[in-house]
Design a protein that fits this description.
Elements: H1 26-51, H2 65-73, E1 80-82, H3 88-93, H4 98-106, H5 130-145, E2 159-164, H6 171-183, E3 187-193, E4 196-197, E5 200-201, H7 202-205, H8 213-217, E6 221-225, H9 229-244, E7 250-255, H10 274-281, H11 285-296, H12 300-322, H13 331-334, H14 342-356
Parallel strand pairs: 1-2, 2-3, 3-7, 6-7
Antiparallel strand pairs: 4-5
Length: 363
């Protein structure tokens, strides 16, 4: 939809998706831009917190904001979202408190949040591609429950699952595609191809574009410019509507780039060509969309206000992150079984006696 310079220049292949942009207003465009800017500032603050010993790990999303924002806004409230571990802004759009992500990566929660309380945004999954199976099973359950393909767009449900080019090489992802195609699940596979599976380039993983794999499983596949928030929105919107209507699953490959490290445990300077990085930095999704908004006549005051809001959001994130405390020891026992269990109670009592034995003593 958008050129790297931010001009609205839809390609020939974009024609069938253009109607899905017609309902968008300038307020929607502003919301897209605001969320991309805010999450990038949050992302940088979280990385700083990890470097300062406040988090065990951080997973950057810098560079992938357009793919995530566009696709997230293409979902409906009743849909279910299965992320991997980098979809921070998707969670924010679905109503997740971003500090919950920090709690999880600080290691003070067992899962992070309850999906039903946060827009059906399911838990992060650090085991590559396992969420694709979870999503497919959930979509099959929707079919059994009769909560999809009833002809009511306001209530019919669908699933979107996010995974990356590295995860696409996992057996789980391929098994999920088999079941989704076989049962024609109401589901969209959203593959963020950020070019690197940690230190392995996508060219090593696949000799053909990843979206072409969809055809082998019997479902449509579409490749989009993942740094174009409008393309991400339009294609995902159509795919989700098709899924809710009973037209089966589909796959979207969003071509984007991981500007930062895979995680804060990684050093991409050891394996990436600086020229490649510069190429993608010049195609920054936020810079592109800002240019588009300026072309529409959006005032500078709005852009400045968004920057200020992002800075405030990051500062609030830091303050709240520094205030995080560890859970009571009992929580690890309280969540083993739904009902009281004699063995767990005995183990809990033993640990309390053991810890108490150190009180007042010296080593």
């Amino acid at each position: 939809m958008l050129s790297p310079e931010g001009l609205f220049q839809p390609s020939d292949s974009a024609a069938e998706f253009l109607p899905y942009l017609e309902a968008l207003t300038e307020d929607d465009y502003r919301r897209f831009y605001r969320d991309m800017v805010v999450v990038r500032k949050f992302d940088r603050e979280a990385a700083n917190l990890q470097r300062q010993g406040q988090l065990a790990l951080w997973v950057p999303s810098h560079g992938q904001e357009a793919a995530q924002v566009g696709s997230a806004y293409a979902t409906r409230p009743q849909d279910h979202v299965f992320p991997s571990y980098r979809e921070h802004v998707v969670g924010m759009i679905r109503g997740l408190d971003m500090v919950d992500i920090l709690r999880m990566l600080r290691g003070v929660t067992l899962g992070g949040w309850k999906p039903e309380e946060h827009g059906n945004f399911h838990l992060y999954t650090l085991v590559l591609a396992s969420q694709t199976l979870h999503a497919t099973g959930y979509a099959m359950g929707m079919q059994l429950d009769g909560s999809t393909a009833t002809g009511s767009p306001e209530t019919d449900q669908a699933v979107i699952v996010y995974y990356g080019d590295g995860a696409s090489s996992q057996g789980d992802a391929n098994e999920a595609l088999v079941f989704a195609a076989s049962y024609q699940t109401p589901q969209v596979f959203f593959l963020q191809n950020n070019q690197w599976a940690i230190s392995v380039p996508v060219a090593r993983q696949s000799r053909t574009p990843l979206y072409l794999r969809a055809g082998g499983f019997g479902m449509p596949g579409t490749q989009i410019d993942g740094n174009d928030v409008l393309a991400s929105y339009a294609v995902t919107r159509k795919s989700m509507e098709d899924a809710r209507a009973g037209r089966g699953p589909s796959l979207i490959e969003a071509l984007t780039y991981r500007i930062g490290a895979h995680t804060t445990a990684d050093d991409p300077t050891k394996y990436r060509d600086p020229d490649e990085l510069a190429y993608w930095v010049a195609r920054d999704p936020i810079v592109r969309f800002r240019a588009y908004l300026q072309g529409l006549g959006v005032e500078q005051e709005f852009l400045d206000a968004v920057d200020e809001e992002a800075a405030d959001f990051a500062a609030d994130t830091r303050a709240r992150a520094l205030a995080i405390t560890g859970p009571e020891r009992s929580v690890i026992f309280d969540n083993v079984y739904a009902e009281p269990h004699a063995l767990v109670a005995e183990q809990k009592a033993w640990l309390e006696r053991y810890e108490a034995s150190f009180e007042g003593g010296s080593l």
